Amino acid sequence: MGKIIKWLLVTVSVLVGILVIAGLIVANVFDPNDYKERIVALMKEKTGRELRIDKHIGLTLFPRLGVDLSGVTLANAPGFGAQPFARVGDARVSVKLLPLLSRRVEVDTVTVDGLTLNLATDKSGRNNWDDLAGKGAKEMGETQNADGGAAVIESISIGGLDIRKVIVNYVDRRDGASQQLDLQRLHAGEIVPGGDIPVELLIVAKTSQPAIDVILDASATLKLAKSLQRFEFPDLHARVQAKGEGMPSKGVDAELSAALIFDRSRDSFSVKNLLLKRDDLSLSGAIDGSDLSGRQKLSGDFELAPFNLKRLLGELGVALNTRDAKALTRVGLNLKLDKTSALTRLTNLQARLDDSKLSGSASVGSGEHPPVRFELHIDTLDADRYLPPTEATADDKNKARAADTKRPELPLKMLRGLNLDGSLRIAKLKLYGLKLRNAVLGLKAKRGVVRIEPLAAKLYNGSLKVAASMNVQGGQPRFSVDKRLAGVRIGPLLKDMTGDDPRITGTANLAAKLKSHGLDDKVIRRNLNGRAGFSFTDGSVRGYDLAGIIRQAMAALKGKSVKSSGPQKTDFAGLKGSLKISNGVARNDDFLAKSPFLRVKGRGTIDLANETLDYLLTTKLVGSVKGQGGDDLEKLKGLPIPVRVSGAFSNPSIKPDLESILKEVAKRKLLDKVKEKAGGKLGEALKKGTGAGFGDLLKGKGGDGGLGGALQGLFK
Description:
This protein is of the alpha+beta class and 716 residues long. Helices cover 22% and strands 47% of the residues. Among the domains are: 539-656, no CATH class; 668-712, no CATH class.
């Protein structure tokens, strides 16, 4: 046995000696620079590109097989200009020879100092690297043993990486966008499977659309499994700095830390202890991915700690001026993410918006028109906090006027592709001053039809229920709405909404079924068609004292002036009517209002597009009107008094029909005078129609002037 071992050692020594001698001989005899022209010709033959090697090629064969390249330039693909595709400054790599006999690959430190790649895509979508990648992949194949099996490597190690000044430029000529990736430094220690490898990285990147500059400075320890199938970074730390379009004016300076694992054998990865911090912005969480080459399943939990969103938006150039200065200063989010290639789901959603808490779930499908589903709940929301201040500046008012004159543009294409089904519930809501409870909004959209059903809430002792739809399948949107307001105290509602004393009070019931089409508000009102009904009970119309208006008109006819006294309002026990709306004009033929001293009937039209109305109301004074206008109105009790209401919504004109009033008063005074003068003879005289009895009535007796005198004194 000892002799056998001895001879084996001698044999190995001889072989090693022969290899050493052979390496020395080849190193001194073989010069790769003698083959430059052949290498250039081979590249031209295989790719059609020019290859230039301007500097000396360094080669070592023993004890290391090494190559030292510098001054190498590869021309661009045809049609991509004269700029070279690649330029190598200086690159070195070497492999120890003797370990190769034991199927061990031991590479010294790989050094690259100066490498530029110019990548491009032309207007047709063709790029300038496909001719290299495609042919190389087809011709290289898999390294095999002589028996056809794949070559087996027992182990591999690399002395390290020292890569500097690697620049990759990319231009997309389809839209003119460009990007540049400048790898200023990539340093890694000895790379040995099963060991810990320190890694440092510094990258500077630029994009043109949008114009953004980014700096990434990162460090980590790489744990590389012996199988080369698992890569772990347990302590990744990175600093990201960015500035440019869409960024805060002072830029972004964020810190990132995490633990990363990528396992090729399980086709999975995981990110643990993720923490991204920037000023008061802090995002933490974890995410796992599996079946990466298949359905690409992702799951994770994320928490965005409460931060000042208003300040961040201000830094982004979006200045929000809200009624409440503290609005949007405490915004946070928690959620669980589950994603496959077909569906993304957000569950356990918990959000904070200042004093409001939101919970629920949402999902987004895949496809050309991905289905979106959501179910959200909010405990309490004061939406008015987020509206612009009520006292607008002159500049704000000018902008508002410009917005009013500009025709609104609906995103019709987006709406036609919308596939949506969701609901939003708010326990307590304040919106435009209105206080609502148990508000619910159901929203559905599919194939160009958007439906709101229901829109419902409890408000001011009553309820609101709306079903509406918008059809955008055609050139112009078509709208329909079915609205019901039941048992609502309209006075407090209008007071909260406008901040002013309401024109009308009482308990309101409204119902309307309407349809229209168009793009702008005035056109929609002009095209409005449908029916509506309204009723109010136990209320008043403020700002208009109908009895006082009639009294003042009567006084003016006598040349007198009567000042208005008492509250400027007209009380009613009930007020109702119905509307038939055709092409933006509403007609009302059954207006009816009742109060302890008034009965009002009327008919008229309302021009919704031009915001005008024209009504003729017939008013009768009933009961006692002593407190509503005095003795003058008592004389009109029971008479039909026409009142014309016309003009703009904002300031209508209310005028009694004086001629009709005069006629009615004249008739009444005439009859009263006749009754007074004739007593019981009136009936007999009227039956006869002629003769002394009737003449006596006209002339009168005893100098009282008879009926003629009564007519003369009609308006005294």
